[in-house]
Specification:
Length: 113
């Protein structure tokens, strides 16, 4: 039998949550720059997470060419920050949104199929 969990309402994240998400992303960038770390590629990130999925676990993937992707990722990060999520995950998401926008400028984007 499936486990039933209570879902929180889908309200828009607060300005404070968005500010915390941005601050987390900026901290992560500074830490990576201080350690001269090469940013993780999308393929590396997917490979790292693939081994952590439960069998038959649903996954939702956004591609950079989707015009809605960067803002969707930012809203997720802000919601995560509002719920007290880990700063490194929030920072990673914000950096991913920036990378998506950079890719869109270089390669173009379109509405979802």
């Amino acid at each position: 039998m499936a486990k039933i969990t209570k879902r929180r309402s889908a309200k828009a994240p607060s300005k404070r949550a968005v500010a915390r998400a941005v601050a987390a992303a900026q901290r992560l960038l500074r830490e990576q720059a201080a350690q001269n770390l090469r940013p993780e590629t999308s393929a590396e990130r997917l490979a790292r997470w693939a081994g952590r999925l439960a069998e038959n676990e649903p996954v939702f993937c956004l591609r950079a060419r989707d015009i809605t992707a960067p803002n969707t990722v930012r809203r997720w990060a802000a919601s995560c920050a509002e719920l007290g999520g880990p700063a490194h995950k929030i920072g990673d998401a914000m950096l991913q949104a920036v990378d998506m926008e950079r890719w869109q400028r270089a390669h173009g984007c379109k509405s979802p199929d």
